[in-house]
């Protein structure tokens, strides 16, 4: 790893943030973690991270602050008060998917607090986060790159610097719209196979290795067929991202068609499956148990 190892605060240690905090601690960073469920921050202690009682306590000693919270409003709610304790000149790496408008608002918070700000959402789910194999979609002032890259090199396999603040969040919405379309279409194929008496496992086998057989077909199709959805990327967060993408499109005069339809499926599945993997969207298509063949 190139560059220094500054003290890092990780605010939000769920599936993704916890994995990222653990890797940073493993690689010699002094990590202070905070999460609303303190047990999730304390779980990082065996890897050398310390748990803070408040987000403000976490950021107080940090040269780099990494946020991985649920969405824009939560991030603003948590970080607004916390930034009063941040070091002037500290670097804020905002790595959650919060959308374009929220990114601009958070960048404003950083500027008023005297912090550098890099918009850097990531591509990947639980396993890539645990392996340091995420793709970082970074955007921000060029002079901040040398300070951000030592952190990015630990949590990501690839770092794409895309331009000014907001470019990373814009690209993340583009990518997640594609993921939603892929998972939604796969769910319909699996559900259709079940309905018409075709073997959904044979469908997965048939397309694997072909031009249309994306790796997600095997990974997510197997979960759908087995009806087992351990959360790599929770369904409710994909629903949130789709809503952000649809809203951003409308704000620019673009009326998407596929993404809203997948959003409806995600919303229908969310009450029972929101915390499960996004592949559980197939459950919104399956008939009630008593109606199944």
Largest sheet: 6 strands, parallel
Per CATH, the superfamily of the largest domain is NAD(P)-binding Rossmann-like Domain
**What is the percentage of strand-forming residues?**
5-15%
CATH structural fold name of the largest domain? Rossmann fold
Sheet with the most strands: spatial strand order:
3-2-1-4-5-6
What would you note in describing this structure?
This protein is α/β, with parallel strands linked by helices and 293 residues long. The chain folds into 2 domains: 8-164, 3-Layer(aba) Sandwich (Rossmann fold), CATH 3.40.50.720; 170-291, N-(1-d-carboxylethyl)-l-norvaline Dehydrogenase, domain 2 (Orthogonal Bundle), CATH 1.10.1040.10. Helices cover 51% and strands 12% of the residues. It has 12 helices and 9 strands. The protein has helices at 15-26, 38-42, 55-60, 72-82, 100-113, 126-131, 145-155, 167-196, 200-207, 215-226, 235-251, 258-273; strands at residues 8-11, 31-34, 50-51, 64-67, 91-94, 116-119, 122-123, 134-138, 156-161. The protein has a 6-stranded parallel beta sheet with strand order 3-2-1-4-5-6, with helices on both faces. The chain has a 3-stranded mixed beta sheet with strand order 7-8-9. Strand 4, helix 4 (72-82) and strand 5 form a beta-alpha-beta unit. The longest helix is centred in the middle third of the chain and has 30 residues, at 167-196.
């Amino acid at each position: 790893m190139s560059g220094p190892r500054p003290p890092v605060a990780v605010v939000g240690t769920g599936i993704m943030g916890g994995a990222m905090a653990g890797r940073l601690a493993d690689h010699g960073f002094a990590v202070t973690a905070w999460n609303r469920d303190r047990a999730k921050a304390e779980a990082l202690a065996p890897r050398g991270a310390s748990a803070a009682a408040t987000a403000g306590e976490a950021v107080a000693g940090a040269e780099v602050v990494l946020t991985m919270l649920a969405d824009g409003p939560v991030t603003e709610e948590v970080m607004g008060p916390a930034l009063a304790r941040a070091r002037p000149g500290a670097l804020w790496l905002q790595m959650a998917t919060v959308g374009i408008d929220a990114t601009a608002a958070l960048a404003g918070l950083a500027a008023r607090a005297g912090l550098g700000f890099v918009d850097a959402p990531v591509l990947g789910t639980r396993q890539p986060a645990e392996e340091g194999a995420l793709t970082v979609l970074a955007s921000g002032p060029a002079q901040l790159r040398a300070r951000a890259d030592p952190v990015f090199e630990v949590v990501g396999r690839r770092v794409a610097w895309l331009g000014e603040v907001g470019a990373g969040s814009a690209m993340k919405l583009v990518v997640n719209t594609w993921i939603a379309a892929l998972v939604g279409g796969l769910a319909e194929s699996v559900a259709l196979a079940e309905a018409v008496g075709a073997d959904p496992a044979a469908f997965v086998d048939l397309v694997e290795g072909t031009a249309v057989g994306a790796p997600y077909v095997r990974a997510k199709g197997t979960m759908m067929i087995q009806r087992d959805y351990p959360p790599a990327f929770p369904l409710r967060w994909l629903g949130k991202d789709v809503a952000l993408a649809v809203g951003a499109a409308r704000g620019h005069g673009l009326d998407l068609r596929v993404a809203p339809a997948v959003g409806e499926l995600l919303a229908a599945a969310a009450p029972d499956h929101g915390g499960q993997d996004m592949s559980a969207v197939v459950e919104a298509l399956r008939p009630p148990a008593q109606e199944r063949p």
